Amino acid sequence: MSRRKLYIAISGLMLLSLVIVLTIAGFRIKQRVKSFIDMAIEMEKERELSVEEIRPAFLRITKHELPGKADNLRAVFQQFRESYIFVRFETDAEGIEYILQEFGGERVISKALDMDDLRAMKKTNRRFFSDSLPYWQNENGVCLFDANDVESCRVLEYSGYRGYKILIDDQENTVYIFAYQR
User: Fold this and answer.
1) Same structural domain, 105 and 165
2) Domain coverage including residue 81
């Protein structure tokens, strides 16, 4: 075999090896990109948290703790571009006072809803906290908030980088918190 044929054979093998390596690398990159996209889509979905996940997620978004007594604690959570958590729990007078102190303040809008306000809230049940919460509840058959269950309430609202809207049902000692982080 002449040198020229040997060089051509070696060059051909090198070229073939390069094509194989690039094909494998391209396939692996495609798999990783698809995996990343699937993970991002999954992260953006709203989901109900387990009881063990609620307190740490709430603290991460609000930088506030939930009261010690938070019975029947449930939450919907989403974390991606904007993170938010919707929490519902039952507490005692001490827990309600804790919420009022912890989330009240100078720039917080605080008001008690009268019967007319309650009727209006019940009519706009679908958008009281967030546009996506009613959709999520309908899709998953889970109801964490129904305005028709509220008898008397106070509302605390703060808009900012870390914002929230809190509804306290004084008769049932139930607290609903929609908090977000932009």
Assistant:
1) yes
2) 47-181
CA distances from 171 to 91, 174, 178 (A): 11, 8, 20
Number of domains in the chain: 2
Do residues 80 and 147 both lie within one domain? yes
| Pairing label, strands 174-181, 162-169 | antiparallel
Q: What does the pLDDT look like over 46-60, one tens digit per residue?
A: 778 899 999 999 999
- The per-residue pLDDT for range 138-159, each reduced to its tens digit, is 666 667 777 667 777 888 889 8
The answer to whether 169 and 154 are in contact (CB under 8 A) is no
For the entire predicted model, the pTM comes to: 0.69
For residues 57 and 12, membership in a common domain is answered with no
CB 151 within 8 A of CB 172: yes
Structural tokens at position 78: 């989403």
